[in-house]
Design brief:
mainly alpha, two-stranded antiparallel ribbon, Myelin_PLP, structural constituent of myelin sheath, transmembrane helix, disulfide bond
């Protein structure tokens, strides 16, 4: 009989704990910063697309240059060094953005929970209370006994809140990073423009009736874009030779990889703008309410 009642109590406690867990998850979903979640997804997707496709596109460009546009290694030695340097920068960019995106997402949870607690949109959970304690100036525990009874998860979140508690700095860093990424976005359009011009020239060669120029005068000159020095030989490819290059799978793949990298840069830029708008709004609300001057 005692064993049966004990089993019943354990079952009841298990059900109650599961219900509390479901309630906690539901409250967290209600208080989730959806703008930051969308921005984080865009950031990870855009950075992965930009870095992965950009790395392979640079490798393809290196092969195209050394195969068709120059026979002297010294002509494109500097270009290869630049390409390798950009590839190492891509590794660092990917690592930085994945880390910074995670920090911005945590900051989004942090400030959004504080703002919604101010407006009373939802009741915070244990973690929410710990995170927003340094923002909203929550009540401290009464005496040492109250402090000892504080939940360990709440204390961990409270420490995390103190660490993340500078949204004004996050806004400033994100703003500066957005300006820098605008330049990256503009630079990623340059190879797309070069390859598109080359592809357009090839289309004119393939369909000579659409142009009045002779096929032999239609060329792709890598020197005019600064890819090769002016003394590089041959430096340009014309006519049917250029058309044969455009038909290769290597050229087509590199062209599409640069387009994908450009799209990834655009997605990353949109995510940074979303982060900046959301973080600025949360910080402005908290500061307006007199609770965001220092976190």
């Amino acid at each position: 009989m005692k064993a049966g009642s004990l089993l019943k109590n354990l079952t009841t406690r298990t059900i109650l704990s599961k219900l509390c867990l479901l309630e906690c998850c539901a409250r967290c979903l209600v208080g989730a910063p959806f703008a930051s979640l969308v921005a984080t997804g865009l950031c990870f997707f855009g950075v992965a697309l930009f870095c992965g496709c950009g790395h392979e596109a640079l490798t393809g460009t290196e092969k195209l240059i050394e195969t068709y546009f120059s026979k002297n290694y010294q002509d494109y030695e500097y270009l290869i060094n630049v390409i390798h340097a950009f590839q190492y920068v891509i590794y660092g960019t990917a690592s930085f953005f994945f880390l910074y995106g995670a920090l911005l997402l945590a900051e989004g949870f942090y400030t959004t929970g504080a703002v919604r607690q101010i407006f009373g949109d939802y009741k915070t959970t244990i973690c929410g209370k710990g995170l927003s304690a340094t923002v909203t100036g929550g009540q401290k525990g009464r005496g040492s006994r109250g402090q000892h009874q504080a939940h360990s998860l709440e204390r961990v979140c409270h420490c995390l809140g103190k660490w993340l508690g500078h949204p004004d700095k996050f806004v400033g860093i994100t703003y500066a990073l957005t300006i820098v990424w605008l330049l990256v976005f503009a630079c990623s359009a340059v190879p797309v423009y070069i390859y598109f011009n080359t592809w357009t020239t090839c289309q004119s060669i393939a369909f000579p009736s659409k142009t009045s120029a002779s096929i032999g005068s239609l060329c792709a000159d890598a020197r005019m874009y600064g890819v090769l020095p002016w003394n590089a030989f041959p430096g340009k490819v014309c006519g049917s030779n250029l058309l044969s290059i455009c038909k290769t799978a290597e050229f087509q793949m590199t062209f599409h990889l640069f387009i994908a990298a450009f799209v990834g840069a655009a997605a990353t830029l949109v995510s940074l703008l979303t982060f900046m708008i959301a973080a600025t709004y949360n910080f402005a609300v908290l500061k307006l309410m007199g609770r965001g001057t220092k976190f």
